[in-house]
Design brief:
This protein is of the alpha+beta class. It folds into 4 domains: 89 residues, Alpha-Beta Complex (Outer Surface Protein A, domain 3); 145 residues, no CATH class; 135 residues, Jelly Rolls (Sandwich); 104 residues, Sandwich (Jelly Rolls). The protein is built from 21 helices and 24 strands. The strands form 7 sheets. Strands 9-16-11-14 form a 4-stranded antiparallel beta sheet. A hairpin with a 5-residue loop joins strand 7 and strand 8. The radius of gyration is 34 Å and the shape is elongated. The two termini are 40 Å apart.
Length: 642
């Protein structure tokens, strides 16, 4: 599955033949009937999937549910879409369905009618198994008899379960290996599911009990099969039995994540907390302890050490308790260790990359290649220069020459004509401006692949800039007259503004740091620079705003209820909460002297966010921090109505 294509451009629709179960434990199951695939969703998630009854792209549906205020957490939304596509609940138009037919099962037993008889069979067999003494086989004949009875009991249990599934209205499927599959159980009621899950267990218990009474030496292998079937881990049947009656069940979008941003230590720890807060989890843990004690009981019987004596528990009880507690502690330690290792590995890789880049800037300048091929690669990495035709980029690469400059050197000062246009090959260059008081302020920082010397053209309303090296820098330079001929004559001023001034500014923001370069470029193209006078109200509390804002230059004051909250500086964004929640502004933002903002209209902003899931996830994270609670999903009272 191509995740980027699925979440941005692919058209999807609901499959034609779908069925769904009733809601139990907060979850319902959707089934693609011809393909026999299933998806567990909550009722709210099912409402979202039904938006695809007509063909839509994922961004179109995301825009719609944001407008309707039914958007779930974005990680859950994207996980839901990918899981639905994988289960073929959502398909591309024209997709042909390979049908998987159900078996025509001849026998149908009503679970409600068989419930009490099955429990009686279970209790009688369990009583016989516990009170009588199964023994280890004496010879090969006993082993073969036990194996035959084990196989026969498994077949009878499977047939019993399949007949109950058919009687409850479910479909019976048989695999190529002639195994009767129980996948359709999820479409039945919890009461029927519990009976069906217990049916094979009751069959094994009855067989083991009868053999312990009639031929104890034959009961060993069926007993082992029963113990294995009752295992508390690795998808044992009793785990399914407990989860069927859980009051809170997880949907498929809440575990086993396939959406990359969801596969993080944070999400796994969150899932662990959710599971530990579920009473069913503790029931399963208690059952696991009981299963272990029962296993010790049977081991005692088979090894001629009576487990019902005080001496047995006096000698073996402490060891058994230590084994249980040690196993739980070891499991927890292993889980924590794996998570800490993954976290440390990621942090170490990030720090190593950062230190390597720092070393290359300060000490690795001599190792940089500056031949024509290296210059051409640098030209093709530059957002503005890469838009030119190949003949122009080759000519520019030839015209450039390498020029190393030491740290803190001034490349261009205020009120001086720009003599060269440069491309940063390595290092950092600060772009400074003077405010009305005459103080010099850092406007933005240029790094590798950014252009130096074109800011006066990019911002003709404020053409005075100073360029200063913040680290040792290696530049590819050309004369301004040559740049006019090779570059400026081929590009529009608006393009220079977007790719020379706006894009480097946006790329250094924490909001955009993890965006793809094309996303940053598109964001720069959508925005416009708006100047404000001191005291102008940029965003008014209690009123609806049609724009998303990023402070491009200067400062702005935030107030709420007439009380001052904080001062926002260049790089801070605001207005996204009202746009994402389709609600009024929660605070007022007032411009100070020299404030300039990048503004994006609401519709363009939402369309951009919907088409870039990394952008959407970052905005959701920051907005939730500002609100003090998750921005999605919306609940009555956590947003202001229009």
């Amino acid at each position: 599955m191509e995740i980027n294509l699925t979440l941005t451009a692919k058209t999807l629709q609901l499959a034609a033949q779908l069925d769904h179960s009733v809601t139990t434990g907060g979850v319902l199951y959707v089934k693609n009937v011809p393909e026999r695939t299933y998806l567990a969703v909550t009722p709210k998630q099912w409402i979202i999937l039904k938006k695809f009854q007509t063909s839509h792209t994922v961004p179109a549906v995301l825009e719609a549910i944001i407008d309707e205020r039914i958007c779930p957490p974005l990680g859950e939304f994207y996980e839901l879409i990918l899981k639905a596509v994988r289960a073929h609940i959502l398909i591309t138009p024209g997709y042909t369905v390979p049908s998987v037919g159900a078996t025509t099962w001849p026998l149908a037993l009503k679970p409600k009618r068989m419930r009490y008889g099955m429990w009686a069979l279970l209790l009688v067999g369990l009583g016989l198994t516990l009170t009588l003494r199964p023994t280890i086989p004496h010879n090969v004949t006993d082993v073969l008899a036990g194996l035959g009875l084990l196989w026969l009991t498994a077949v009878i249990g499977a047939v019993f379960g399949a007949s109950l599934i058919r009687g409850a209205g479910g479909e019976v499927y048989i695999s190529r290996n002639w195994f009767i599959q129980s996948a359709d159980l999820c479409m039945l009621s919890p009461e029927d599911q519990k009976v069906i899950w217990l049916a094979p267990i009751a069959t094994f218990v009855a067989c083991t009990g009868l053999l312990a009474w009639y031929r104890p030496e034959w009961s060993f292998l069926p007993l082992m099969g029963l113990i294995l079937m009752l295992r508390p881990i690795l998808f044992g049947r009793m785990s399914h039995f407990f989860r069927v009656q859980a009051k809170r069940r997880l949907s498929d979008a809440e575990h086993d994540h396939i959406f990359p941003p969801n596969r993080s230590p944070r999400s796994r720890w969150k899932l662990l907390v959710v599971n530990l807060s579920n009473p069913t989890t503790w029931v399963e843990i208690a059952y696991g302890i009981g299963w272990t004690v029962l296993l010790a009981y049977f081991v005692g019987i088979l090894t001629e050490v009576p487990p019902w004596t005080t001496e047995f528990w006096k000698n073996q009880g402490p060891l058994l308790a230590i084994g249980l507690l040690g196993s739980l502690a070891l499991l927890g330690a292993a889980y924590a260790g794996v998570e800490l290792y993954i976290y440390a590995q990621r942090r170490t890789a990030h720090r190593r990359k950062k230190l390597r880049k720092l070393y290359r800037r300060w000490y690795g300048r001599k190792a940089l290649l500056t031949d024509e091929n290296a210059r051409l690669r640098a030209v093709l990495r530059c957002p503005l220069l890469r838009t030119l035709p190949p003949t122009a980029t080759h000519a520019i690469a030839k015209a450039f020459h390498a020029h190393p400059v030491g740290a803190w050197r001034i490349l261009h000062d205020f009120d001086q004509p720009v003599k060269e246009v440069s491309l940063v090959l390595s290092g950092k260059v600060g772009v400074y401006r003077k405010i009305r008081s005459g103080r010099r302020v850092l406007h933005q920082v240029l790094q590798e692949d950014d252009l130096v010397g074109l800011h006066a053209i990019a911002d003709q309303m404020h053409p005075q800039f100073q360029y200063r090296c913040l680290t040792p820098v290696v530049l590819l330079q050309m004369e301004r007259a040559v740049a006019d001929e090779l570059i400026l004559s081929r590009v529009k001023p608006a393009q220079i503004t977007n790719l020379v001034q706006k894009m480097p500014f946006l790329a250094r923001l924490s909001l955009c740091r993890n965006w793809h370069m094309q996303a940053v470029q598109r964001f720069a193209e959508l925005s416009r620079i708006q100047d404000y006078k001191e005291g102008d109200i940029i965003l008014q509390e209690g009123y609806y705003s049609e724009n998303f804002f990023i402070i491009f230059e200067g400062e702005a004051l935030t107030t709420k209820g007439g009380k001052r909250r904080n001062v926002m500086r260049a790089g801070t964004f605001f207005g996204e909460i009202g746009l994402l929640q389709n609600s009024n502004a929660t605070a007022q933002v007032t411009a100070r002297d020299g404030t300039r903002c990048l503004c994006i209209p609401r519709r363009e902003f939402l369309r951009f966010v919907a088409h870039n899931y990394t952008v959407a996830m970052e905005l959701e994270r920051v907005s939730s921090q500002r609100l003090g609670h998750p921005i999605f999903p919306l609940t009555p009272g956590n947003y202001r109505t229009l």
